[in-house]
Amino acid sequence: RRKALLLLKKKRYQEQLLDRTEAQISNLERMVQDIEFTQIEMKVIEGLKIGNECLNKMHQVMSIEEVERIIGETQDAVEYQRQIDELLAGSLTEEDEDAILEELNTITQEQLELPEVPSEPFPEEIPEATPIKNRPKPELVAAS
């Protein structure tokens, strides 16, 4: 009977020890997850920091006034192109079309004096074209 009681106490002690060990393992796993999550948060914060630095550099290259100027020029160009499209689409009045036809008839009825065609052959050498120089663009910095 005493031996059985001793074995039961030993069993109870082992179970309590096992429960404490499982609780400690659970705490360790939770700590590892917290550390991993904190590392991810640090990477996100570092990414945001780098992104902000890149945005600041890009803002230095292009100001709001320059963007507004470019947008204004683009709108002017779109409006000008719309006017050209309207003219080409035939939005002329009948009076305009009559005047254009009359001018065409006048031009085709005139006898034009054309210069004589040269009889000597063309030169063999073709002069080299000079390259067009482009305006240097502001340097943009890529995010790392």
Task: Summarize the model shown.
With 144 residues, the chain is mainly alpha-helical.
List the helices and strands and how they pair.
Blueprint: H1 2-61, H2 64-88, H3 94-109
Main location: membrane
Subcellular location: Endosome membrane
Keywords: Coiled coil, Endosome, Membrane, Protein transport, Transport
Describe this structure in words.
By secondary structure, the chain is an all-alpha fold. It folds into two domains: 1-62; 63-108. The chain is 70% helix and 0% strand. It has three helices and no strands. The chain has helices at 2-61, 64-88, 94-109. The longest helix has 60 residues, at 2-61. It is rod-shaped and about 140 Å long. The model has no long low-confidence stretch (mean pLDDT 83).
Structural class estimated from helices and strands: mainly alpha
Which regions have little confidence, pLDDT < 50, spanning 5+ residues? none
Query: What sort of overall outline do the alpha carbons produce when their principal axes are compared?
Result: rod-shaped
- Tally of DSSP β-strands: 0
Number of domains: 2
N→C terminal distance? 75 Å
Residues in helix, %: over 70%
Overall mean confidence score, pLDDT: 83
Subcellular location: Endosome membrane
Protein name: CHMP6 protein
GO biological process, one term: protein transport
Organism: Penelope pileata
